[in-house]
Amino acid sequence: MATAARFLVIVASFAFAACIQNDGSRNPLSDFGKVSVQDERKLGYEVDVQLQDNLVLIEDALVLSMLNDLGQSLVQTLGEQPFTYRFRVLVDPSLNAFALPGGAIYFHSGTILQAGSLDELAGVMAHEIAHVKAHHYARQAEAAAIPGLLAQLAGVLATVATGQVEPLLIAQGVNVALQLRYTRELEAEADNLGATFMARGGYDPQGAVRFFERVLTKQRDPGIEIPPYLYSHPAVESRIEVGAQRAEKLTITGKKPPGLDRAFRATQYRLARIIELRRNELKEVVGTRDTKADPLIATARAEATSGDTEAALRTLTRAEARYPADPRIPFRRGELLAKEDRPTEAIRAFRRALLLDPDVALNYYYLGLAHRKLGEKVQATFFLEQAARRFEGRGNLPKRAREAARRMIFPVVGNSGISDGAQTPAADTPAGRSRQLFGARDDRVVWWAWIEEDYVSRREEITVRWTDPSGAVAQDEPAASTRRPHARAEFELTPDRLALHGIWRVEARLDDDIIDRRTFRIVPESNEVER
Q1: What is the pLDDT of residues 378-417, one digit of tens each?
Q2: Distance between CA 408 and CA 421 in Å, rounded?
Q3: DSSP character at residue 323
C-alpha cells in the first residue's frame, strides 16, 4: 500500500471512530464551535500514536536531533505555548510536510533531502508550526469544514478494506481535498506567521520563497513527487511573489543556533545513507572505551562519593583531555553536573557523550530531565521519547521515560497561581485574590491549581514544597483537594517567616516530577503595596 494512502487510511479509521464514539466522553469533533486546546491535544496525540505504529519512520537519533533543534529554535520565539511540539520524519521521497493538531509535525524525507539550505527547511518548519500555533485545525472544525471529509474518509476506508487497489487513488484525491480544507486564507496566514517566526529565530525568510521556487523546478522531475495541492493551493507563483515582498520588509532579529547549518548538511548525508541502506537508523559508535581512562574515572567516582564534586569534575576534565573519544567521561561529568543542579552544563556534557555513542538510553533520559529542569519542553520531550524507545524490557526506567514524555504533552496543571486566600468580592481566583507581595498584615499564602482531566483522580498525591529565600525548605506537605478539579496548599505566615524578606519559591510535585513552579515575595511593612 502506498505511504500516502496508508496514512489516509489510518487517519480515517481513527477520525471516523472518534466521530461515532458513544462511551459517554465528549467527542472533540462533534461539538463544533467549541474545540478546546485539550481537544486538539488529545486528537493529535492519538493520531500521532497511530502513525508511529503504522508508518515507516526514521528513528535515527542524530537526524531527529537536528530536526528537533531546528524546531526548538523556532518554537522558543513564540512565547508560552499550550502545545509541546514533536518532530517526525516519514520515509517518503515527495516534497511534503504536515502538522497534526496539538504539535506533532511530520516531514517527508524528500523535503529534508531536497532542501537547498537550512533556511529553506526552516521555511517549511515555520509554516507547519504556524498551522499549529494558529489553531487552524480547531478553526476548521468550528467552521464545520471537517464532518463531510470524515464521511468521505470513512467511505474510502470501507472500500479499501475490500482489498481493491483502485480506491487508493481515491484516497489520494481525498488527501488533496483534505489539504484544500486549509483555506487560502489559512495558508496565507501560515505563510505570513511562518516568515515572522523565521526572522525572530535568525533565519532568512527568503528561504521559504526559495523552497517554493524549488517546488516549481521539481514539478517535471520524474524522481520527485509534488503533491498537487502544494503547487496549486494557493498557486505557488503567487506565494513566491507575496513571500518575496514580505521577506524584504522583515528584519532578522534572532540568531540561529551555532553549528546548525553544518549539522543540517551532515543530516542530509546521513539520511540519504539510511534510506539507501533501507534502514531507519544508523547505529554507529564513534567513540571507544579506553581502559587507560579507568584509573581517572575511578578517582573521580571516589571524590564524588566523598562529597568533593568539584574535585571529581576537575579529574574528569583532565581525563577527557587525555581520552577525548571515551563516551563514559562526558557522561559521568553530566551525571555530576545534573546532581549539582547545573542543567545547562550537564546538557553540554551529555550531548558530547551522545555524539560519541548515540545508543545509550540512559544518556537520552538524563538529557530529557535536564531540559525539563530548564523548562524546555520541546527538547525534553524529544530526549525522553528517544529514551523510552531505547530502554530494553519493561522495567521502571522505560515506564518513567514514557510517563515523563507524556507529561510534557499533557501537563498535570492547566492553570495555577498564588493568592491570599481571602474570599472577597475582589477575589479573582478559586483561592482569593492574586498576589505577589505579602507582608505583616497577611496571615497566609495559598498556592492553587486547576488539575487537568487526566490527573484529577491523583490530586491527593500532589505535594507542595515551600522554600525560603536562603533555599531552606520551610514546608513540604500534600496538597488539599478542593472543589473539582482544583487543588490547593496553604502556607501560614508566622512572625518568623514574615521576617525572612525576599523571594520565596513554591514547587508542586507528582511522582517526584515538578509539575508547577511559582514565586512570591515577602517584604517589610513599609514596602507593602496598597491592598
Answers
A1: 899 999 999 998 998 777 889 999 989 998 999 899 889 9
A2: 30
A3: -
- Containing H/E element for 466? strand 463-467
The b-or-e profile of 156-193 (16+ CB within 10 A means b, else e) is bbeebeeeeeebbebbbebbeebbbebbeebbebbbbb
> Which grid coordinates belong to 69?
533543534
Q: Which neighbouring-strand residues pair with 478?
A: 463
Say how far apart CA 222 and CA 209 lie, in whole Å. Answer: 23
Whether residue 401 contacts residue 388, with contact meaning beta carbons closer than 8 Å, is answered with yes
Instruction: Look at residue 393 and give its three-state secondary structure.
Output: coil
CA distance 419 to 435: 5
Measured CA distances, 56 to 41, 51, 383, 518 (Å): 23, 9, 20, 42
Candidates 120, 22, 110; CA nearest to 70 is 120
As given in the structure block, the three cell numbers for residue 524 are 517589610
Helix (H) or strand (E) holding 477: strand 473-478
Q: How far apart are CA 249 and CA 131, in angstroms?
A: 22
Domains assigned to the chain: 31-146+181-276 (no CATH), 291-409 (1.25.40.10), 413-527 (2.60.40.1930)
Q: Is the peptide bond before 358 cis (omega within 30 degrees of 0)?
A: no
Place of cell 533565519: 203
Calculate the alpha carbon distances from 142 to 6, 42, 44, 137, 303 in Å.
27, 17, 16, 9, 61
Whole-angstrom Cα distance, residue 234 to residue 299? 65
Residue 108: helix, strand or coil by DSSP? strand
d(CA 318, CA 306): 19
CB 270 within 8 A of CB 62: yes
Q: CA neighbours within 13 Å on the CB side: how many for 379?
A: 22
Residue 219's closest CA among 114, 298, 116?
Answer: 114
Rounded Cα gap, residues 151 and 158, in angstroms: 11
pLDDT tens digits, one per residue of 151-206: 444 444 444 445 543 433 433 443 443 454 567 788 889 999 999 999 999 999 99
215 band by pLDDT with thresholds 50, 70 and 90:
confident
> DSSP state, 530?
P
With CA atoms as reference, report the closest residue to 465 among 434, 508, 404, 410: 508
Closest CA to 415 of 448, 447, 450: 450
Instruction: Name the pTM for this structure.
Output: 0.79
